[in-house]
Amino acid sequence: MRSVPMWARAYILCVTLAGASCAVSALGPHTPWPAVALLAVLYAGCEHEALLDRLAGRTGAAARRRAPRGPGTLFPVLLAGVFLLPPAAAALVAVPGALLARADRRPRWVRRVWRAAQLALASWTSARLYAALGGPAATAAPDFPYVLGPAGAAVLAFACVLTVLDGGILATAERVPARTAWRGLFARSLAPVAVHGLAGLMMAVLWTSPYGPPAALLVLLPMGVSCWAFAQYHHERAAHQATIRALVQAVDLKDRYTRGHSERVGRASVLIAEELGMDDDRVEVLRFAGILHDVGKLGVPTRLLRKDGPLTPEERRVIELHPEYGHEMVRGIGFLGEAREAILHHHERIDGTGYPYGLAGRQIPESARVVAVADAFDAMTSTRSYSRARPVAVALEELDRCAGAHFDPVMVAALTRALDRHGWHPGVTSDLPGRVPDQLGDQRGNVPPELPAPSASGPAAR
Questions:
Q1: 112 touches 101 (CB < 8 A)
Q2: From CA 343, how far away is CA 293, in angstroms rounded?
């Protein structure tokens, strides 16, 4: 508790007391305890972190490293309580599950109490509004579409309370500036709460029907399947990201001179792909292609990558094997798709003077033509030990001058339009004093690799 700032302690205490007062008022003879108990047990069991980790295929350390989940995985149960129970009883539903849930960060008991109070207040507020708008009678009828009005208002109230309380904890405990603490919170919470609210309303309607609670519980079956599929997707995506990250880190360790280059090429590749109207899956693959385009450097002797002086023809031929090395390294990684072709062919040129196979024009895969332009653009706009970064406008002029010979004009034009719209924010530069120029583009030791030269240098020869 000592790690919690004083203002955060006071804020958490006030919210906890408010949540407790809402829940304690349910302790009376008129509370429908069987329904409260069933919903509370259901919420606690389904929300339990260990169960969610097993559903996602995570155990042990993998469970502790999982990505943060979105708010309220089992909000349908809480919102069903809002639509079925008196406000105070609805506030009780979330308390056992929140208090029993696992907290990965300390102070754990403070986090559990905070979550219980937050959900109790959100449930109580939305249930009060739902009752004031005549929702319970419409649910029992059921009276469609009239019931959708009170239900929608309750969902909005639920999301608003979560937003207000979350922003407060960010401002007091995380010291986020008050002017930005609440920014974007409501928009992020409304969508999942609205979807779960519809499921909760379906549960409430079936609960009050002649079929009773067993029929209402069936609503959770497709919800559980969708949560499992969503968790599996994120688990697989996290594994993909970890694979990419490990490969990029290995390249950076071997050739630290290009630190950050891979990420920037991936970012520029995404800009081009989106400008060309590619679907999201292809955009993601091209991002991978940009990030991994130089992974073949792992197969190149370090002494050649760091050689101080011009390369011999034999040494240049060895380094020019790095696209083929990279292709072999990622051949078995199925999720990369056409990114493998981009890794192999990103040094090919439209006029056929590139390597490794001297492909020309449309023989070069589209993904490779995208990455070639992104690679050359970052080479020209990054600060190196032997040359300062060129302005974006100058780099684009150079790309345009080489379009049709070295680069696909369509890709150059797409990057130009994208940068006009979004700008360029490189973030990381490879400004490491004392390192020598990239030998692929500087045989003489004094010409930046982005300048075209007869000896196969130029923006793409890196």
A1: yes
A2: 5
What average pLDDT does this structure show over 44-71? 47
Question: Comparing C-alpha atoms, which of 257, 259, 350 is closest to residue 305?
Answer: 257
Q: Are the beta carbons of 418 and 272 closer than 8 angstroms?
A: yes
Side-chain-side CA neighbours of 144 within 13 Å: the count stands at 4
What single-letter amino acid sits at 458?
G
Distance CA 291, CA 1 (A): 42
Give the separation between CA 269 and CA 203, rounded to whole angstroms.
46
User: Hey, how many other C-beta atoms are within 10 angstroms of the C-beta on 324?
Assistant: 16
Q: Hey, where are the domains in the chain?
A: 6-232, 255-422
Span 259-314, pLDDT tens digits: 688 889 999 999 999 999 999 889 999 999 999 999 998 888 888 877 777 888 99
CATH architecture of 255-422: Orthogonal Bundle (1.10)
Q: pLDDT digit string (tens) for 164-196?
A: 999 999 999 888 888 888 988 998 889 889 988
- CA-closest candidate to residue 79, choices 219, 209, 271, 266: 219
Q: Are 348 and 355 in contact (CB under 8 A)?
A: yes
Is the peptide bond preceding residue 391 cis, with omega within 30 degrees of 0?
A: no
